[in-house]
Amino acid sequence: MSATMQSSRAAVRARPLPLLRRQLAETWRGLIGWSLGLAGVVGMYLPLYSTIGGNPEFLAIIESLPPELVAALSYDQITTGAGYTQGTVHGLIGFVLVTIAAVAWGSSIIAGDEERGTLELVLAHGVGRTQVVLERFAAIALKLTALAVLLGLMVLGLNEPAALELSLEGIVAGSVALLGLGLLTAAVGTMTGAIIGRRTIAVGAASGVAVLGYALNALGNQNPDLEWMHVLSPYFWAYGAAPLADGFDPLMGLLYAVSAAALTVAVIAFRRRDVAV
């Protein structure tokens, strides 16, 4: 073993959480970009509620939409501050932005490096496979938490000026729900990448979970006979109990439980298979 490799391994062992630190150092610029995008969405949509929330013309527009579309988009409560925030930010544009970020981050930490041929080099520096999965996913969790905190602070800051009338518990619960959705999406991407080692497949799996969850929730809202679909929808786990209006609900815990299960599968699968060179 060369002296350079030995010193490199010693440096890895000496510094706590080296992979997490490196992951954050390499991706902080991207986090700023996602933060600016999310801040722009919140700053654009929420101030409008004070002028259109009780506007008869706005109500007439909502009433003119097909009932199926209103139910699918959860616009049935959009005339309330909680319903408007859910329908425009948490459940739509903000959800899309966080989902795209989670898909990109989760699908790349294993499969992305493996396709580039750099994962084997990382493992050669004296780090275990479990360490690679857990530390890199921890970096994703921190970045998603930063986005959720930013969202919560902005909603809190605009709550009174925009006349949203949200409670502090509701604001926190809404951010926790969105964070759970992001973690679940990222965990599925990480798990698929750890099992298969192909980034495109990991992207498809993570995106599919998010899209399918939204679709199942929309279908479940259409007809009482289809409400059983809610049970299979992570989107419903997050927002079915209206966290912005009513606060925390135990159903939200499923997001974090399934995320933990997917991460466990990722660790086991990655430890058992060969890394493509």
Give a quick precis of the structure.
This protein is mostly helical. The protein contains 14 helices and no strands.
Detailed description of the structure:
This protein is an all-alpha fold. Helices cover 76% and strands 0% of the residues. The chain has helices at residues 3-14, 18-45, 49-52, 56-64, 67-72, 81-108, 111-116, 119-123, 129-159, 168-196, 199-220, 234-239, 243-246, 253-272. Helix 2 (18-45) packs antiparallel against helix 6 (81-108), helix 6 runs parallel beside helix 10 and helix 6 runs antiparallel to helix 11. It is elongated, with a radius of gyration of 21 Å. The protein starts with a helix and ends in a 5-residue tail after the last helix. 42% of the residues are buried. The mean pLDDT is 88.
Strand content: under 5%
Low-confidence stretches: none
C-alpha termini separation: 20 Å
Share of residues in helices: over 70%
Q: Shape from CA axes?
A: elongated
Total count of strands = 0
CA radius of gyration is 21 Å
